[in-house]
Specification:
Layout (H helix, E strand, L loop, with lengths): L2 E6 L3 H17 L2 E8 L8 H30 L4 E6 L2 H11 L3 E8 L7 H8 L8 E5 L4 H4 L4
Parallel strand pairs: 1-2, 1-4, 2-3, 4-5
Amino acid sequence: MRTFLVIMDESDEARAALRFAARRAIQVGGAVHILALVTQQNFSAFGGIQATIEQEARDRAEVLAHGVAGSLLAESGVMPTISVKIGNGPKLVTEFLESHKEVAALVLGAAKGTSPGPLVTHFAAQAGNLPCPLYVIPFDYDEKSSDHEA
């Protein structure tokens, strides 16, 4: 099954990417996989505190991903798969793509302004080496207003 991988956070651009991926998945009978990334803490002096901070961040990411998944299901009928990973964003996404051959496209949301965001910047520079197409969705992309009758 063709799977559209969306990297999720609390931004408007991530939500636009998710809506885009859901519509594409519906069109091709595919699926959506949400990957929520949690930055690994560099605070190592007190391991227990570091573990607590990372667990709280992971819990927030899971709550966010499940909330977005519920909204996506209500809007489009697509129930995404959800993964939460802790560590370096570009490295985690690359490893995920390498180990999940069913991913048909990496869908990222671009932030408004002159910098589209670290993941978009990284993967746009690596697009020729990716195992799948890269879709970069503008933060305010309105899928419905862009539909055209053929």
